[in-house]
Amino acid sequence: MTTGAMRRPGAAVGSVLLTIAAIGGVVCILLVVLAVVFHITLIMFKTGSMSPTIPTGSLAVVGEVGGDEIRVGDIITVDRQDALPITHRVTSVTPLGGGAVSITMRGDANAVEDPAPYVVSTARRVLFSVPGLAYAVSAVSNPLALGGITIGAAAIVTWAFWPREERGLPVNRRRAGTHTAARLRHAALALVAVAAGSAVLAPSPARAAVTEETIVGSAITLVSVADKDAMADLQPGVPVTWQIGISAHPAQPGTVDLALAGSGGLVSDPTGLWLSVDTCPVRWVGTTCAGGGTPVMGFAAASSHLASSVHLASMPTSDELWVLVEAMVPNAPSMRAGTASLSIIASGTGGTVVAGTTPGAVAYTGSDISVPLNAALGALALGLGLAFAARFRQRRLA
Fold first, then answer.
1. What is the spatial distance between Cα 244 and Cα 322, in angstroms, rounded to a whole number?
2. Cβ pair 90, 72 in contact under 8 A
């Protein structure tokens, strides 16, 4: 068997792989066009607030619509200032003029509507969703998978541009092979370039709304109000609030002591979770206390406060008190992933009651696409460098 004959199966397999890669590049181009021209984007559902319609782990395709196009029954993603987006079903629409509308929404799995209406002039409507696909997207987004894709892209480019031995072939076959290889190499190059550009299409997570939970003890009642999903996936530099209402109804008057406790990697890490704590005699409205708030703990690293539980306040059992905790992770590339557990402990006459939340954070990425973009460009540069070095060496030897 000749050397050329032995090479044909490998060349055929390589051509098939490059053709598949080229088709993938075309798909990426179409996605880029849809995103730019028709404002089509992707969102991932990390919670079950829209179950069973859209279960946890679904990947949804959403398109931008004007406020006057929103209808009752639509599943809409609304952007919120200083907070993460929320995706729920529209329950009412009130026109405000000028294309703006006021809408109320509720998750299919929630018993009550979101606490307040949303005023929007544009929003994103869910076109369709695929259950379970968000897990695959998240898996591909981790550093190990990104590294594997980078190495694979470098290998494809290197193979596509590697110099071929064409001696002994008829001129017509040599030219045909050259033209075919050129087309495949250009397809591979286009694939890598489009893959780098498509990094901007990273899906964003869909969120649930603020929920309220009542914990009733024998003589103490706590009301915990939080966006649990936003708290569980803190974004760098974006504070998330958690407020807890405390009231007591013991048989005999007394006092209730309040303490804050925490544990987990984000709490022990000085560059991890940051907290502030304030109290108010009435329920907080956002971060505003109508009765005049009292600072208890200024914004600082949780590691400096929560080596053990921290006493926050004492209150007569005849009073009511609301504690506001703001949690945030630093807006810095050095911020590491992790989780934490925070608890408000109310103890005194009538026993002890605990309310908790679980802040969490992913490694800093935000909207910064420099990592995948640099990885794709690095793969391209590495592949081209190896291939052209081999070509230069071959020419010198010839």
1. 6
2. yes
DSSP-based three-state secondary structure for 209: coil
Distance separating alpha carbons of residues 155 and 138, to the nearest angstrom: 24
User: CA geometry: angle at 123 spanning 104 and 362, to 5°?
Assistant: 95
Torsion of Cα atoms, 13 then 19 then 25 then 27, to 10°: -110
CB 91 within 8 A of CB 116: no
Record the tokens describing residue 239, joined without a space.
């504070």
Angle at 122 between CA 120 and CA 125, to 5 degrees: 110
Q: What is the pLDDT of residues 299-349, one digit of tens each?
A: 888 888 776 778 999 999 899 999 999 988 876 545 555 778 889 999 987
Task: State how far the Cα of 351 lies from the Cα of 63, in Å rounded to an integer.
Answer: 52
**pLDDT tens, position by position, 45-95:** 777 778 889 888 888 888 888 888 999 999 998 877 655 678 899 999 999
Strand 86-97 with 100-106, pairing: antiparallel
Alpha-carbon gap, residue 188 to 18, rounded angstroms: 6
Decide: 68 and 99 in contact? Cβ < 8 Å: yes
The domain covering 38-133 belongs, at the CATH homologous superfamily level, to Umud Fragment, subunit A (2.10.109.10)
Place of tokens 């108010």: 280
> What backbone phi and psi angles, to 5 degrees, belong to 90?
-75, 130
Same fold, 38-133 and 209-361: no
Q: Where are the domains of the chain?
A: 3-36+142-202+369-397, 38-133, 209-361
CB of 385 closer than 8 Å to CB of 258: no
Does CATH place domain 209-361 in 3.30.1050? no
pTM: 0.47
Residue 38: CB atoms within 10 Å: 10
Q: Among 340, 344, 342, 341, which residue's Cα sits nearest to residue 353?
A: 344
